[in-house]
């Protein structure tokens, strides 16, 4: 066996270490939810998001991409951003809704599985500037962010409206993952590209804004992102309808 063949059959350690850490964070979130520590569980899912965002960039920077890494990353995402958020939300409040609660959790899990399967098969088809459907990490942030926000602000789960808001958030996140709404991917942004000085100031202000009250800031940011795809979808639809009317010679 040649050296090249041994390298091809081997596994790159660095990017897969980040993937393993993200997988551990998702598993840790499930364990903490079972122990009733829902704020810690939510924070673990956000940690998994950061680690998941790093493994791909590390692989590209070190030229250590592999088919094994891609499959391992998808399986890790299914645990950290599919199963973990659904179980955290269910253990926290959805179980109080009976069958409606576990149905909402299952809709989310099924949406995450379908989202990841479609993403893996549409890599060469979809515009890389946009995701087709809400990405699973953002959906997980929406669900776990709601849990973190409610627990941090000591919202009582005995309130009649709270379980149904949690139900709506979970179903919305699950359905949005399998929608065709375009969500900005950020892949066109290159870390090696130079930016104006005010760009660094914006990064500093973003850190300050998030650090003031992380649950509210992070949940608010992902709510905006979770709605942005539908806003862009509606804007594109309006633009297409306007072009059709212009071609037909009809007034706008």
From TrEMBL:
**Membrane-crossing segments per the record:** 12-31, 100-118, 130-149, 161-178, 190-210, 216-235
Cellular component GO terms, alphabetically?
endomembrane system; membrane
Q: Where in the cell is it found?
A: Endomembrane system
The EC designation for this entry is: 2.7.8.8
Q: In what way does this protein cross or attach to the membrane? A: Multi-pass membrane protein
PROSITE patterns, alphabetized? CDP_ALCOHOL_P_TRANSF
**GO terms under biological process:** phospholipid biosynthetic process
**Example GO molecular function term?**
CDP-diacylglycerol-serine O-phosphatidyltransferase activity
Similarity comment: family membership: Belongs to the CDP-alcohol phosphatidyltransferase class-I family.
Its recorded name reads: CDP-diacylglycerol--serine O-phosphatidyltransferase
Source organism per UniProt: Pigmentiphaga aceris
The opening ranks of the lineage are: Bacteria, Pseudomonadati, Pseudomonadota, Betaproteobacteria, Burkholderiales
């Amino acid at each position: 066996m040649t050296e090249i063949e041994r390298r091809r059959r081997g596994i790159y350690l660095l990017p897969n270490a980040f993937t393993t850490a993200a997988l551990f964070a998702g598993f840790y979130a499930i364990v903490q939810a079972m122990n009733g520590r829902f704020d810690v569980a939510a924070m673990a899912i956000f940690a998994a998001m950061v680690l998941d965002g790093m493994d791909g960039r590390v692989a590209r920077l070190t030229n250590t991409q592999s088919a094994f890494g891609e499959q391992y990353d998808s399986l890790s995402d299914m645990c950290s951003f599919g199963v973990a958020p659904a179980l955290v939300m269910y253990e926290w409040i959805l179980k109080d809704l009976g069958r409606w609660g576990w149905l909402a959790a299952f809709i989310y899990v099924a949406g995450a599985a379908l989202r990841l399967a479609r993403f893996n098969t549409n890599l060469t088809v979809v515009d890389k500037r946009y995701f087709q459907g809400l990405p699973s990490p953002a959906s997980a942030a929406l669900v776990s962010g709601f849990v973190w926000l409610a627990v941090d602000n000591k919202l009582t789960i005995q309130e009649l409206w709270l379980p149904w808001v949690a139900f709506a958030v979970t179903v919305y996140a699950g359905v949005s993952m399998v929608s065709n709404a375009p969500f900005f991917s950020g892949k066109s942004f290159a870390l090696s590209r130079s930016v104006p000085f005010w760009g660094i100031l914006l990064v500093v202000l973003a850190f300050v804004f998030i650090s003031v009250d992380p649950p509210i800031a992070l949940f608010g940011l992902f709510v905006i992102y979770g709605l942005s795809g539908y806003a862009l979808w509606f804007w594109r639809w309006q633009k297409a309808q306007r072009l059709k009317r212009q071609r037909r010679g009809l007034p706008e």
